[in-house]
Specification:
Length: 427
């Protein structure tokens, strides 16, 4: 019995050792399989290519952080972000034709009508769920990316225009409040010229800064068929305001007159006391010209009508992408409430969702509230399927009229005829 008991003990120990060995082997195999599974999940993660143009280094860093947050929440999706620095739309159009376009890319509202009409973008209506809360977006901005009752893009951010004015310059001539009408602006501009600043007002003769003036007199840039109509008598009334202030009052200047590259720089360098700019001017001025004490106000009314412009950019999906579900996941995150709050939280851009603007307090922000208020009555910067023909011809001739080289009417008729001739050739 003693020997039998001893054998039982030995047998028990052997079984224990054998069991431990099996347990170790099972654990090793399980761990190895887990590593293989992880490697497999990484290797099978879908890569989405996102293309956009370059902004400031701070903006680029911010977007990179938002994309990293997206990847952390979507382990099966990787985002390859590409910055196209030069000729952005030419590159995108070339790639779309060659079927090599990115899965998701930026699209400016100005360029949207052409691409939406070419059947190269994926309509997003079937992806949008009630939970996404489409009604939270500013309607004006969503409408900029609608074509034949379908939504082709979701706006990522926007800016309107507001009046920026130098508080010290105003105090110097005894002005306490910003002008509320264009007549007041011209009067203020005369008073401010030659005092603390060389000129009272900085004028940007680009079409993007003139549309609301034309619209104030019921003028239009293009007709329902996309052909230019900016030489009409109504349109000329709005543009004449600019000519008179520049030529008769001599109280306004354009950037080339004072050796600067932008309206913001004119203002920051104390060359002008007032300028009409967008949200982008706020971080630029506070960082580059911290000594400038400035405030903002809504653009003064013209012909008793409120007016401003709104500029917006959307994320759109390439219709040829092989990864539509994943592309939508990216778009819906970037334009969703949480993603948008991260993107616009620093103030570099204004959120297109009303709830996000409210959460961030931009509707109450001293500098940004006039910009936010303007979106309700702003005119979208969007002219036709062929914006280049309209914009280039207008600007070439309008500057000529501004400099007194020809009459305003002569310049606009010439520009309109040339633009429409180009559009007919492309239609």
């Amino acid at each position: 019995m003693v020997n039998g008991c001893k054998f039982s003990v030995i047998k028990s120990k052997l079984l224990t050792v054998f069991g431990v060995a099996i347990a170790i082997a099972i654990a090793f195999i399980a761990c190895h399989n887990l590593q293989l599974a992880n490697q497999h999940s990484v290797s099978t993660a879908i890569t989405i290519k996102l293309s956009g143009w370059g902004g400031s280094p701070v903006e680029q860093k911010l977007l990179t952080q938002v994309l990293q947050d997206f990847e952390a929440q979507h382990q099966n999706i990787k985002v390859k972000y590409e910055v196209i620095s030069d000729q952005y739309m030419d590159v995108i159009k070339t790639r779309l034709v060659g079927e090599a376009a990115p899965d998701v890319f930026y699209l400016d509202a100005l360029e949207a009508p052409f691409l939406m009409s070419q059947n190269v973008l994926e309509p997003l209506d079937n992806y949008i769920t009630p939970e996404f809360d489409l009604g939270d977006f500013e309607e004006t901005l969503i409408n900029s990316f609608k074509y034949q009752n379908k939504i082709y893009g979701l706006p990522k951010d926007y800016s309107t225009l507001a009046l920026f004015y130098n508080k010290k310059a105003f105090a110097t001539v005894g002005l306490n409040e910003p002008p509320t009408t264009w007549e007041e602006l011209r009067s203020y501009s005369k008073q401010l010229t030659g005092k603390l600043n060389k000129y009272g007002f900085g004028e940007i003769p680009e079409l993007a800064r003139q549309v609301y003036k034309i619209k104030a007199f019921d003028g239009k840039i293009v007709d329902q068929n996309g052909y230019g109509t900016f030489a009409s008598e109504a349109s000329l009334k709005g543009l004449q305001l600019v000519i008179d202030q520049y030529q008769k009052d001599r109280s306004s200047a354009q950037k080339s007159d004072v050796g600067t590259n932008s309206g913001s720089e004119m203002f920051g360098q104390n060359k002008v006391a007032m300028v009409i700019e967008g949200n982008w001017a706020i971080p630029y001025l506070t960082e580059t010209f911290p000594q400038i004490e400035f405030a903002t106000a809504q653009v003064p009314t013209i012909n008793d009508k409120k007016g401003t412009m709104v500029f917006t950019v959307a994320y759109v999906m390439n219709k040829q992408t092989q990864h539509k579900a994943e592309a939508w996941e990216l778009i819906s995150y970037l334009t969703g409430k949480a993603g948008m709050e991260k993107w616009t939280g620093t103030g570099f851009a204004l959120p297109t969702r009303k709830s996000v603007a409210k959460n961030l307090g931009y509707d109450q922000d001293t500098l940004r509230s006039p910009l936010v208020a303007g979106v309700d009555y702003a005119t979208p910067w969007q002219v036709s399927k062929y914006p280049g023909a309209i914009v280039n011809n207008f600007e070439n001739q309008f500057i000529s009229a501004l400099l007194g080289q020809q009459s305003l009417k002569q310049a606009m008729v010439q520009a309109e005829n040339a633009a429409n001739e180009q559009i007919r050739a492309m239609d």
